[in-house]
Amino acid sequence: MDPTPLIPQALPIPVEWGWFYLFQMLTFILHILVMNVMLGSSIIALVHHLRGKAESEPLTRSISLKLPFTIAFAVNFGVAPLLFIQVLYGQFLYTSSVLMSVYWISVVGLVILAYGSAYIYDFRYVSLGALRTVFIAVTTLCLLATAFIYTNNMTLMLSPLTWAEYFENPWGTILNLGDPTVLPRYLHIVVSSIAVAGLALALLYKFTGKNDPTAQRWVKHGVDWYAYSTMVQMALGLWFLTALPEHVSSLLLGGSLPHTLVFATGAILGIFSISNALSYNVVSTAILSLTTIILMLFLRDMVRDAYLAPYFHVSDRVVTGEYLPLVLFILTLAAGLCVLAWMLRTAATDSEVRS
Amino acid sequence: MNFPIWELHWAGGGLLIALIAVFHVYVAHFAIGGGLFLVVTEHLAYRRGSQPILDYTKRHTKFFLIVTLVLGGISGVGIWFIISLVSPAATSQLIHTFVFAWAIEWVFFLTEIVALFIYFYTFGKMSRRNHLTIGWLYFFFGWMSLFMINGIIGFMLTPGDWLTTKDFWDGFFNPSFWPALAFRTFIALILAGLYGFVTATWEKDAQTRETLVRYCATWLLAPFAFLLLSGWWYISALPEASQTMVLGANPEIAPYMQGFLWISAILFAGGLIMAVRMPAAIKRPMALVLLIIGLLYMGCFETMREAGRRPYLIHGYMYSNSILVGTEEAITAEGYLKSSGWNRHQEVTPDNAMAAGRELFRGQCAACHSIGGPLHDIKRLGAGYGTVGMDAQIAGMGKIYAYMPRFVGTEPERKALAAYIVHELVGESETAEQMPPRPEIGLDIPAFDSDADEYVLLAWCNLGEKCISDSDSRFSLLPPGSTLIAQLIRRGPQPELVTSGVELTFTPPAGFENPSNHVEFWKYAPSLVGKELEPNVSAKGLGMSGVMKPNEQNQTFIADGIPVLPYMDDGTINPYPVFTIEARDTASGKILASTKVVAPISTEIGCKNCHGGTWRHEGVMGISVTTASDVLARHDRRHKTQLLPQAEAGKPVLCQSCHPDPLLNATGNPELLNLPAAIHGFHANYLSDAPGAEPCHSCHPTGPDSYTYCARGVHAAQGLTCVNCHGTLEDHALTLLKAEKEAGKPKAELLMRHVKPRLVASIEEIESRTPWNDQPDCLNCHVDFEAPEGDNPSAFNQWVRGPAGLYRTRADDAGLMCESCHGSTHAEFPATNAFHPDLDAIQPLQYQGHPGPIGSKGNCAVCHTEDMYYEFHHPNILGRP
After folding, report:
1. What angle do CA A27, A343, A336 make, to 5 degrees?
2. Could you tell me if residue B520 is inside a domain?
3. Residue B498: inside a domain, yes or no?
4. Within this chain, do residues B145 and B244 fall inside the same structural domain, yes or no?
5. What pLDDT shows up at residue B432?
6. B276 lies in the same domain as B347
7. Domain with B384 in it: what CATH number?
8. A161, B20, B47, B138: most buried by Cβ count inside 10 Å?
9. pLDDT tens, A76-129?
10. pLDDT digits over A207-266, tens only?
11. Could A75 and B362 be called an inter-chain contact, meaning their C-beta atoms sit closer than 8 Å?
12. Which domain holds residue B351?
């Protein structure tokens, strides 16, 4: 069946698509980093609670204190790219979202539950005792489920050929499980979260734990999480690659220079980051890892466009040429960042117990 | 707009949006007012040097942080999610139009979160000045979020100039922007006090608790006057259509407006009571109850705002069901199903009608109607309709009452939708009603001796069909009271009309003598016609038999107001009772002449086709209580009357007590539409898709499928229908409405808005008319009394200005009434009656042995006792040589 009649018409956009692409990419990088730390650190904390060793309490306590922040910012940094991607690819994303409405809307409940549970885990950490495991488990499972739903939607939006399933199921309970990329893609992002969270913990202890004799232990611990999960990640990446439809995977494997270049550079830097991690070079690991993540996110976009190429080109849009709102946004963003900087500096420099 | 539609069934009709949105908005407004509350309370603590107040502020900040970030922040994203699932087209439009407004709002969201975290986590650790600055920044960012979102929400309600310019700023700073911003700001302040109660009442120290609760009460009470003022400003800034919708044009919204005002009073009183010193055990639950009432308050407001937008998602741009304004005609021409690839059935066929109906429901109705759920439940709203009624309801939707969009699509699509709703959703099993056989009616044609008889007695009913509404316990629009008229002719070469020295009597057929045994008119007469009536006596004082009054002016005898009904004492339903008319010499009492005449009478008025219920009597005719109650309920709902409760209390009314009607010489309330204009004008909006007489048959017993089938005359036999003389329902309604519009009645214009004439090109060409008085002239078609030209003549739009010129009141130069020789309207000789072929031809058969007009086929001798060669009565009376 030709899915073209199912694809809604794209609406005009106020300024050239590149602006949206830029904002989407910048904010999505932030989102992915914070989201990785959020999901990964909650998994790490859960693992420690399940293992039940008292010695890891400082680590889980530290995670508990920071987890609510990561959720708040993962959500906030998620809003912006979701907004911009709706501008560029709304006709695909709205459609796939409707097909899986029940799951998609349940994300709201899942995140509220995860967030609420994370606050209880934080504010009541000491008094909860063994119940800590329950609350961090609720948070982790809700976030894992959310990630699974996202993976489904982000792949379903790329597969108009499967949309006709709606005719049998208009109740919003379609998942994209028939797509062989869903599982490797999901595991890819979950395991990368563990890696990034491990690295983030290592960085945290490295830069804040200078007076803490135990800090080095947690730096190593974090880097270990990074190194081993990134190894798993390599295998998952290969699985993901082979699961991609051939017209897409071939682009990454020499069919297209930009695709191949970004893919190969990212993969190689990833491998380098493992070797750096195994030598506990936290900063260089972080730099390599960050570069890999950014390259892989670019690749992710290129893969999306390859999927949609038969139906749509992101550059093919009517532009209304309304620039003033864009200028206002940039000015607001700049002013907002200045105020943020002032607030953060004030918080850092002017916060000692006074009363 | 080619998006798939999530089939929500029970949870449909916007329920999910309402739940998430009201909850979010309740928390989000608190996040704004509460932000100011925090920093101002912190100030207060410093000014008074009060550690307890400072401790309270910190405690409240924690509560605030969890509520606004976890519940408020995520549910805000939740609204975005749910609207994109339920109305992806509108969401896409909002996102594309205002992407940078959303993006700016996101910056404020980000700064808001950071400020709040810092405010909370540095409480008591940062210098007072910096901490207060962070607090003020938080409030500023929060309020700016409102500023941004307010522009977009307001755009949906009042897009203003954006509709033409498509300019971002026109849409953002739309006509309701500032009043809505003020209104929401004051609500936010009130909510700050309301939420403040929750933490304040949990304060352990009694003295501090009382101080804090009173402080919170000030927050709740102080902004109230401003809230109501800005609310008034808000409403006055709305365009008229939205304003009337909010103020009750949509009957479903009235309770929310009342609720809002009542809750305003309750919250205000609650604030005052909270300020009174009471134990914590009382105040704590009270604080929680007030918090819940506050949620209802927000719900009422948001529901009204949404209602003001009806029937649009984006006012004037996109309908509630995502159909774009301006595309209706193209979609109707092409077919709705074809407008989206997400409809599996691209056109309706006999095999797929139900499945196509489901897709039509999904596309055009499900945005607002749930199936068995709490919001606009189609099962409840659609109950009682048959497919005909549902089809009419859908056809008329959005035409008079603008809170629903009009149906767009083809006629088969509309019928498929109606059938799907009635059969699949409501589950009404519709069996074709089997009309019982008509009774056998015996008829003896009275004798006439053309040699010996000196008189010819001609009699007729002044209306071709007298219809009676027998829904007397609910309303009456046509009370019993038929009129028989007779002329007595003394035969001879120069016949004479006799009006003196004789007495004419009328007698009903056996079995019809007791109409008051069959209907409740006599029971409710005091309420319906203003006086007690003897059984079987009409409001005009006439019984079932009596003496006809001579009328010297037109040389007739008249019995005006015979309360005859189609119901016989043995249960037979016979709409054609045959009365006996006898003429006697007053002096001698000798019978001079005798004849019989049908008094056609029917209660077959098809209200039940759309208003639910069944026929009142034997599956044949009559308006049942269920049907009549529904008519009144709808009238009450639309026009804010109390007719149904009044009727249920035993005080039903005559429709003409308010609506003027020349038929009953009722002046009513002259500001209201006259009854025929109101009824035809209203229903023309619902029953107007057939080019022929089918819509007429929906209400009147004019169709061949009806039991009564009142079109018995020669016109019907020739294949002419209602339309040939009266126009289609639309034309007919427009003639009446236009006259009312010219008389300055604004309601006429409302009813005319979507009614297009069929027989003339435009409304300008419609000749307005007064009901009953101005009717088509026979001579429009029968020029010079000749047969009309063509097979499909039309008498429409050229009116005899009556009542003097009407067929039923006109006479020739000899004084002979047209109806004397040609029969009643709709039963013109030669007429055929479905109950007995000769029923409407009694006198022609009696006097001349054939059913044509009296005197036709050279039968001048009926009156003249000899052949005549001069066309005295009218040209062409002798026919062509």
Report:
1. 40
2. no
3. no
4. yes
5. 64
6. no
7. 1.10.760.10
8. B138
9. 999 999 999 999 999 999 999 999 999 999 999 999 999 999 999 999 999 998
10. 987 788 888 999 999 999 999 999 999 999 999 999 999 999 999 999 999 999 999 999
11. no
12. 328-426
Q: Say if residue B349 is in the same domain as residue B298.
A: no
Give the separation between CA B683 and CA B610, rounded to whole angstroms: 10
The answer to whether B597 and B524 have CB atoms below 8 angstroms apart is: no
Phi, psi for B548 (deg, rounded to 5)? -85, 140
Tell me, yes or no, whether B56 and B167 share the same domain: yes
Domain covering A8-322: architecture: Up-down Bundle (1.20)
Of B319, B346, B365, at which residue does a domain stop? B319
**Chain A contact set for B23 (CB, 8 A):** none
Written as one string, the DSSP assignment of B595-649 is EEEE--EE---TTHHHH-S-EEETTTEEE-HHHHHHHHHHHHHHH---HHHHHHT
Whether the CB-CB separation of B577 and B566 falls below 8 Å is answered with yes
- List, in sequence order, every residue forming a beta bridge with A90; answer none if it has no partner: none
Q: Which residue has the tokens 């208003």?
A: B611
Q: What angle do CA B836, B840, B841 make, to 5 degrees?
A: 100
* Nearest-CA distance B54 → chain A (Å): 11
- Interface residue of B57, B132, B170, B342 to substitute, partner A, most A CBs within 10 Å: B342
B156 with B261, same domain: the answer is yes
DSSP A255-321: ISHHHHHHHHHHHHHHHHHHHHHHTT-HHHHHHHHHHHHHHHHHHHHHHHHHHHTTT--TT---B--
Query: Cα–Cα distance between B217 and B276 in angstroms, integer?
Result: 10
Q: Give the chain B residue whose CA is nearest to the CA of A65.
A: B121
Q: Count Cβ–Cβ pairs < 8 Å, chain A vs chain B.
A: 198
Distances (CA, A) of B52 to A83, A207, B20, B255: 44, 38, 36, 43
The tens digit of pLDDT for each residue in B436-478 reads 889 988 899 999 999 999 999 999 999 989 999 999 999 999 9
Contact A6 B2 (CB under 8 A): yes
Closest of B304, B494, B330 to residue B408, by C-alpha? B330
Could you tell me which of B579, B345, B587, B583 has the C-alpha nearest to residue B483?
Answer: B579
Assign A355 a pLDDT band (cuts: 50, 70, 90). very low
Q: Which residues of B touch A91 (CB under 8 A)?
A: 92
Question: What is the value of pTM for the model shown?
Answer: 0.89
B5 to chain A: which residues are within 8 Å by CB? 98, 170
A window 116-135, beta carbon within 8 A of B: 116, 119
Same domain, B122 and B157: yes
Verify that B280 and B371 share a domain, yes or no. no
Which of B1, B106, B338 to mutate: most A Cβ within 10 Å?
A: B106
State the Cα–Cα distance between residues B328 and B340, nearest whole angstrom: 14
Domain termination residue (choose one: B786, B810, B834): B810
User: Do the domain assignments include residue B199?
Assistant: yes
Answer for the pair B75, B27: CB distance below 8 angstroms, yes or no.
Answer: yes
Structure tokens at B715: 């016109």
Q: Which chain B residues are Cβ-neighbours of A22 within 8 angstroms? A: none
B140 part of a folded domain: yes
B22 and B127 assigned to the same domain: yes
Query: b/e map of A17-45 (b: 16 or more CB within 10 Å)?
Result: bebbbebbbebbbbbbbbbbbbbbbbbbb
**Interface with A, mutate which of B54, B110, B117 (most A CBs under 10 A):** B110
Q: Determine the Cα–Cα distance for residues B440 and B576; give it in Å rounded to an integer.
A: 12
B9 chain-A contacts, CB cut-off 8 A: 171
Bridge-based pairing state of the strands B546-551 and B502-507: antiparallel
The tokens for B692 are 């022929």
Name residue B596's amino acid. Answer: K
Q: Is A166 on the interface with B (CB under 8 A)?
A: yes
Spatial distance between the Cα atoms of B703 and B138, rounded to a whole number of angstroms: 73
